[in-house]
């Protein structure tokens, strides 16, 4: 049976092509590439405002094979087709439905390929309607093997009513994983914060996407005795860091 790395290598041209297609019309500017962790266990945590475009960006810029959590619906072609149609309708209204119809033949090819191969290229299914214990256990298993995993925070769109519309409330997943790896395995896993701005702009609409990668953060710098206190402290620190990175991007853009 082929390893993950072998499966990824075999599908690399298609993955790159699909990522480029998802980002048509978008220019990409990256800051802080030197902060990527090149080897060993790594958790990459960032904001999530651009649905599939966020993953496309990360697949293009992260310099190593990675696993990422995703809605289990992408593993079923009918459910994935529904997700894409809903995304186009939310962002482009009636034009989105027209675009969905026009692109239907091409979309069918993409949907069939993605749903059939998602698990083979490092996707960890998350059932949003059920408990996430199995997902956490799978992520921890990969970290023990020295793999990198991506966990994005948000609903895949800009939340206009939030104090920071580009960075929502961070869940505890990455923080819990970090805590468990330290307490159970004695490993302080580097957690890489990433901020993305511009991925929320609809598909095919030209724009510049800016990405900033922060220095790795460690649970050992936030130990506070009890599990809950440490986890919440680290969760809050990760959220604040990504918000700061977003502000850096906005400030940079306003001075260009």
Task: Report what the structure shows.
Helix 3 (77-102) packs antiparallel against helix 4 and helix 6 (173-185) crosses helix 7 (227-254). It contains 7 helices and 7 strands. The model is unreliable at 71-76, 115-122 and 124-131 (pLDDT under 50). The protein has one domain (4-72, 125-254): Glycerol-3-phosphate (1)-acyltransferase (3-Layer(aba) Sandwich), CATH 3.40.1130. It starts with a helix and ends with a helix. Helix content is 48%, strand content 16%.
Q: What value does the average pLDDT take?
A: 80
CATH domain class: Alpha Beta
Number of strands: 7
**CATH architecture term:** 3-Layer(aba) Sandwich
Annotation field: number of helices: 7
Shape: globular
How much helical structure, as a percent, in the residues?
40-55%
Proportion of residues in β-strands:
15-25%
Q: The CATH topology is what?
A: Glycerol-3-phosphate (1)-acyltransferase
> From the helix content, strand content and strand pairing, which structural class follows?
alpha/beta
Features:
globular, alpha/beta, seven-stranded mixed beta sheet, Glycerol-3-phosphate (1)-acyltransferase, 256 residues, 7 helices
Tell me briefly what this model is.
This protein is of the alpha/beta class and 256 residues long.
Secondary structure elements and their pairing?
Blueprint: H1 4-22, E1 26-31, E2 42-47, H2 52-61, E3 66-71, H3 77-102, H4 104-117, E4 123-126, H5 133-144, E5 148-153, H6 173-185, E6 191-197, E7 207-213, H7 227-254
Parallel strand pairs: 1-7, 2-5, 2-6, 3-4, 3-5
Antiparallel strand pairs: 6-7
Helix pairs in contact: 1-2, 3-4, 5-6, 6-7
């Amino acid at each position: 049976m082929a390893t993950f790395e072998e499966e990824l290598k075999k599908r690399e041209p298609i993955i790159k092509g699909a990522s480029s297609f998802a980002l048509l019309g978008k220019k990409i500017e990256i800051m802080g590439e030197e902060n990527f962790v090149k080897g060993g266990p790594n958790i990459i945590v960032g904001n999530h405002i651009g649905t599939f475009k966020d993953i496309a960006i990360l697949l293009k810029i992260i310099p190593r094979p990675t696993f990422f959590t995703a809605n289990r619906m992408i593993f079923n072609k009918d459910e994935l087709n529904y997700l894409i149609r809903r995304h186009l309708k939310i962002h482009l209204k009636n034009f989105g439905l027209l675009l969905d119809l026009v692109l239907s033949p091409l979309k069918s090819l993409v949907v069939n390929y993605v749903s059939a191969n998602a698990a083979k290229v490092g996707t960890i299914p998350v059932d949003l309607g059920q408990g996430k214990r199995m997902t956490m256990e799978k992520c921890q298993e990969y970290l023990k093997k020295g793999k990198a995993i991506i966990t994005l925070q948000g609903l895949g769109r800009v939340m206009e009513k939030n104090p920071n519309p580009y960075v929502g409330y961070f869940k505890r997943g990455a923080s819990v994983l970090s805590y468990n790896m330290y307490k159970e395995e004695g490993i302080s896993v580097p957690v890489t914060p990433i901020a993305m701005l511009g991925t929320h702009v609809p598909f095919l609409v030209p724009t510049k996407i800016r990405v900033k990668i922060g220095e790795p953060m460690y649970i050992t710098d936030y130990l506070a005795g009890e599990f809950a206190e440490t986890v919440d402290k680290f969760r809050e620190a990760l959220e604040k860091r990504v918000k700061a990175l977003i502000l850096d991007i906005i400030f940079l853009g306003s001075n260009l």
